[in-house]
Amino acid sequence: MAVTVKASLGKEKYYTEVVAGENTLITDEPVDKGGQNKGFNPFEILATSLASCTAATLRMYIERKEWNVEKINVEVELENFPLTKRAVFKRDITFEGTDLDEEQLKRLHTIADACPVHKILTNDIEILTKFS
User: Fold this and answer.
1) CB of 47 closer than 8 Å to CB of 92
2) Is 78 within 8 Å of 46 (Cβ atoms)?
3) Cα dist. 84→20, 79, 80, 81, 87 in Å?
4) Cβ atoms within 10 A of the Cβ of 62, count?
5) How far apart are CA 80 and CA 1, in angstroms?
6) pTM for this predicted structure
7) Of all helices (H) and strands (E), which one includes residue 124?
8) Strands (DSSP E) along the chain, which ranges?
9) In a 10 Å sphere around its CB, with 0-12 CB exposed, 13-18 middle and 19+ buried, how is residue 56 labelled?
């Protein structure tokens, strides 16, 4: 499965419009980095991808199992360590309005790790760049 997004940045520091199909979102840098904080910064977008994919993957599984779960909350903290070339994602998942037992929670942990974005982030990644 391939997806294509297009980011366009004009002269307004660092206000960027990102388009994917019919959807648009805004990214920016915080004020202390020279931006205007009008949107998510790139690291927040990366963490958002993991959080939203995890929640959707869990919801699909929960619905298939017909478990009663009112709400799924996924909080992701991303710490980047450029000097060691290491990044750490800390993911905290909670469920509201449910009585999941230990066996169900153990299964949901496995399902969370099977989310497509989690798989991408834990696999070998290659970035091919060209200028046109």
Assistant:
1) no
2) yes
3) 32, 12, 9, 6, 9
4) 19
5) 27
6) 0.92
7) none
8) 6-9, 16-20, 23-27, 71-81, 86-96
9) middle
Task: Find the length of the chain.
Answer: 132
| CB-count exposure of residue 55 (10 Å: 0-12, 13-18, 19+) | middle
**Cβ(76)–Cβ(88) under 8 Å?**
no
Alpha helices, H only, 8-84: 42-65
Tell me if 25 sits within 8 A of 6, measured CB to CB. no
Count of helix runs (H) and strand runs (E) in the chain: 3, 5
pLDDT (tens, 9 = 90+) of the chain, 132 residues, equals: 789 999 999 999 999 999 999 999 999 999 999 999 999 999 999 999 999 999 999 999 999 999 999 999 999 999 999 999 999 999 999 999 999 999 999 999 999 999 999 999 999 999 999 999
Phi and psi (nearest 5°) for 27? -120, 155
